[in-house]
Design a protein that fits this description.
- The protein has about 475 residues and is α+β, with helices and mostly antiparallel strands.
- The protein has 3 domains: about 220 residues, HUPs (Rossmann fold); about 90 residues, Uridine Diphospho-n-acetylenolpyruvylglucosamine Reductase, domain 3 (2-Layer Sandwich), CATH 3.30.465.60; about 120 residues, no CATH class.
- Helix content is about 35%, strand content about 20%.
- The chain has 12 helices and 23 strands.
- A 6-stranded mixed β-sheet has the order 3-2-1-4-6-5, sandwiched between helices. Strands 7-8-11-10-9 form a 5-stranded antiparallel β-sheet.
- Strand 1, helix 2 and strand 2 form a beta-alpha-beta unit.
- Helix 2 crosses helix 6 and helix 5 packs across helix 8.
- The chain is elongated.
- The termini are far apart.
Length: about 475
């Protein structure tokens, strides 16, 4: 079916890259190759099976793992072909086919990596999964993230190594993989969806990058891959600096022992505010991600604003049940008991000043569509729509699930959100799926479909922020 190709160029970049990986790998630990049957994974598996000389050292056990996403016609034949290659090469083969319809590339990726994690667990903690991502994949990833407005850490692109996984071909270019395949007489399966320009990755690969290299910057692919390496180096430097900065802020961790009350990190507020805002933003990201929370740009900015201007006793939600609060002279960052993974699925929506947009909020088992726009007039809305005086709002706003201590200002005074939901006969089992709109100070502005606060009513002739909820 496929030639073994034992007499090939020992200086091949693919061969050198795999040999370098094996030099750092524990020989007794199995390696599990994510084997799609495409060019990249065929080269990786072939080099591991036939193309490395360990100088008398013991080679690791190699297992091929194939996941059939069942998203297109012909995928079952690809799985059968991959199994045939592994029989011919005498490589153990593990495969699995999705039993449910996968709706997107992101969902397919999650299912594939979950399968690889299961295979790895079957071979023990020392086993490592190898994927065949290469330098072109890295360049495309960095460009894709740049176009979506990623932060500096996102420019790191695909990680070469992480616990339980490695990508030994990440610095090898596709043309070098093709040269290896030609030298050994290797054949592979082409996925026809790789040519569909409706997919963002394919458009970058087949149209955008070639156009950039022809008309803008010859060598753009290599420059993007170099940018990823520089960003990785920068991130490693910050990982050394930030713990030292944290010590100057009197950082303390509480509740990390038995986990009974979750995890809490506290820092001195005065010392924190003495830092410049860019360094404070880095520290917020460092602390929140260290606790297991998310820290996108909007969240970091909101925490910065909150710590600068709010008062002791106030708390804001930052997604997934994590909170940031003020307790006298301390800033308190916390996640609930057992960490975020045990919480119901939550995806908050952040609304920035002077923006129009649409997004999806996920509250437990309920997803709601949120749209917003700024317009003139005093339209007040009703039910699942509300308008606010844009100049009077403390931005950004956040649509999320209720949180302990939430209160809303009504004409009769400030009321607990939980009490309001009870009075409106919202069943207790459904209260965590009721959206709540809060401002940057943690004030509840609106409980869609239930009640609106008296804050920031729209004014004639003034810009209004109109927000609409669609179940």
């Amino acid at each position: 079916m496929i030639a073994r190709g034992e007499d090939h160029d020992p200086s091949s970049p693919a061969r050198r890259a795999v040999h370098s990986f094996l030099g750092m790998h524990t020989p007794a630990a199995p390696v599990i190759v994510a084997f799609s049957g495409g060019l990249d994974s065929c080269v990786l598996l072939h080099v591991l099976r036939w193309g490395v000389d360990l100088g008398g050292g013991s080679a690791p056990t190699v297992i091929a793992a194939h996941y059939d996403h069942a998203m297109r016609d012909g995928s079952r034949a690809d799985a059968q072909w991959a199994g045939g290659v592994c029989r011919a090469w005498r490589v153990p083969f593990v495969s699995e086919r999705s039993t449910s319809a996968l709706a997107s590339e992101a969902e397919a990726r999650r299912a594939r990596y979950a399968f690889l994690d299961r295979v790895r667990s079957d071979y023990g903690d020392a086993a490592v999964v190898l994927t065949a991502h290469h330098a072109d994949d890295q360049a495309e990833t960095v460009l894709f993230r740049m176009l979506r407005g990623t932060g500096p850490d996102g420019l790191r692109g695909i990680h070469e190594r992480r616990p339980g996984m490695a990508r030994p071909l990440l610095r090898v270019w596709r043309e070098e993989l093709e040269a290896y395949a030609a030298a050994v007489g290797l054949r592979w399966r082409e996925d026809p969806t790789n040519e569909h320009l409706g997919l963002a990755r394919n458009a970058l690969r087949h149209e955008v990058l070639p156009l950039v290299e022809r008309n803008v910057a010859n060598g753009a692919r290599r420059a993007l891959a170099r940018l990823a390496r520089l960003a990785e180096s920068d991130a490693e430097a910050w990982s050394e600096v930030l713990p030292m900065v944290a010590r100057t802020l009197d950082l303390r961790e509480e509740g990390a022992g038995d986990g009974a009350s979750g995890r809490h990190l506290t820092i001195d507020r005065t010392s924190f505010l003495s830092l410049g805002r860019p360094l404070r933003s880095r520290m917020i990201h460092y602390i929140v991600t260290g606790l297991g929370g998310g820290s996108d740009e909007a969240t970091v900015a909101r925490v910065n604003d909150f710590v600068e201007s709010s008062t002791s006793g106030r708390t804001i939600q930052i997604g997934g049940g994590a909170t940031v609060g003020l307790d006298l002279d301390r800033i308190v960052c916390a996640v609930p008991r057992d960490g975020l993974a045990t919480l119901p699925m939550m995806q908050d929506v952040v609304i920035e000043r002077n923006s129009d947009g649409r997004a999806e909020a996920v509250l437990g088992d309920r997803a709601v569509q949120v749209s917003w726009s700024t317009e003139e007039g005093e339209h007040r809305g009703a039910g699942d729509e509300a308008s606010f005086d844009a100049d009077e709002l403390s931005m950004p706003l956040e649509l999320r699930a209720r949180a302990p201590g939430d209160r809303i200002r009504l004409r009769g005074g400030s009321r607990k959100v939980n009490k309001v939901l009870l009075e409106h006969r919202i069943p207790s089992a459904s209260r965590d799926t009721v959206p709540v709109l809060v401002d940057a100070e943690g004030e509840v502005l609106w409980i869609p479909g239930v009640v609106r606060s008296i804050l920031a009513p729209p004014r004639p002739g003034a810009p209004s922020l109109r927000i609409t909820i669609e179940p």
